[in-house]
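hi! just following up on the protien thing from before. the input was this:
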Amino acid sequence: MVIRLATPADIPALRPVFEAAKAIMRADGNHDQWSAPGFPDDSLLLRDIARGGGFVIEISPRDPLGLGRNDKTIVISSEAEGGVEKSIVAYFALLPSPEPTYDVIDGAWLTDGPYGVIHRMASYPEVHGIFSTVINYAASRYKHLRIDTHRDNRIMRHLIEKHGFTYCGIIWLEDGTERLAYER
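and the predicted 3d structure came back as:
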């Protein structure tokens, strides 16, 4: 797996990644998160990219890492790199503090210092180990990490807790919807 900064040219290849993530959420009973058509929209992804915080994860279709047992080849957007074809299989935003929606919390954060924020993590369901890869990468760049998720996102809540995050309370997005907030 290779993590690299996303570029505006990657956005068309990211659309099916986000749609696959939404399908996973819907199948697990999470019908409200990312429910707006086209979310996240191009302007939000371009903002992540402009801030140097939009990342893609690529694998070679022949790379056994992440593909699990089914050896299914995923080719969405490919580019040759040293003769090896790479495919985008995931996206995440890793942004520096402060995160304005974290200013008010019904609860308490673990720390008051600088932190990294993980947002908009999405991947194909056939690719395994993305969450661990993202967390390891983020932890190599920030001493403290914060993340939030929808109450109905049971899969993400499980992964967040499994990777050592502590539940800190409820925050509210700009549109007033609540999210469960965690820090590590």
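The radius of gyration is 16 Å.
DSSP finds four helices and nine strands in the chain.
cheers
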